[in-house]
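Researcher: Please predict.
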Amino acid sequence: MKDVLEKRKKTLAIILGLLVFLTFDLMLLGAAVRAFDAGLACPDWPLCFGQGVPSSANHLGVFLEWIHRMVAGFVFLVYMVAMIWAYRAKLSSNFKLMIWFGFFILLAQVIMGGLTVLRILEPGIVTAHLSLATVFLMSLIVMGHLLKEFKFTSRQLIGTTVATFLTIPVVVVFGQIVLGGWVATTYSGMVCVDFPTCNGSLVPTLKGPIGVQVIHRLGAYFTAMVMFIVGFYLLRADVFKSDPFYRKTAWQMIIMVLLQIGLGVANVLTHIPPYMTVLHLAGALILFRFTLGLSCRAWSQVNFVEESAPLKTAKASS
């Protein structure tokens, strides 16, 4: 029976990996839909021109919007399989809680996708659509982490303060993704036509579309600062030197945030071509993946401390 449950667990890990891949691609498809102004290429929902497969699917905008919906539907079906498989594998209550959380986020995302069309691309709804997609991706990554079994030595134990500190990058990158979505949906990407100044001004206004663009730039600088601080902390702190995961993640975060800033600058200087918009979101999501993996690993070591504490006390008393 134990072997059967282990096989089901491994199968579930593969399904979750597929869902992460599909969700990542789905979000990039969504960026392409917006970049090509194809959000209303299908003016109705859930059908497209009243058809399941629109006759005008050879039009780029219609194809992008239609395939985006098809992949979203496929993600929903695969997630239902993951839920059924999770209960067959008899996993922990934490995992079951997370998979239900992901289910309700997915339902909200489906509703938000419909509202995006029905409310004619209202910026707040489109930004919420991106935000929910990011939260759903996060839930999948966390579930994949919960399936793993980690073993740590006593020298690798950390406390909740350190784990909380290593979670800050997740919050910062998530906020920057949301800010980027707001820039895109309010068409504030090209209100500043140069870099590092904004239309030649070192101190531009923080009001209106220019303000949205400037705040996003300031957010990028702040994100880079956080990545450098956390990255160098991981490289220098003694508790992490015995675990190559932290050193690898530190360099991934530092390099990725530099590439991401470079893509942001290129977006402005090349007047935001669609492919650059998609690459910019891809970079943000990859950075989000690195920071989330870091946070999950750190909290695993905290849980290890808490589980080991009673055992240590018992040994000491004997």
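Model: The chain has nine helices and no strands.
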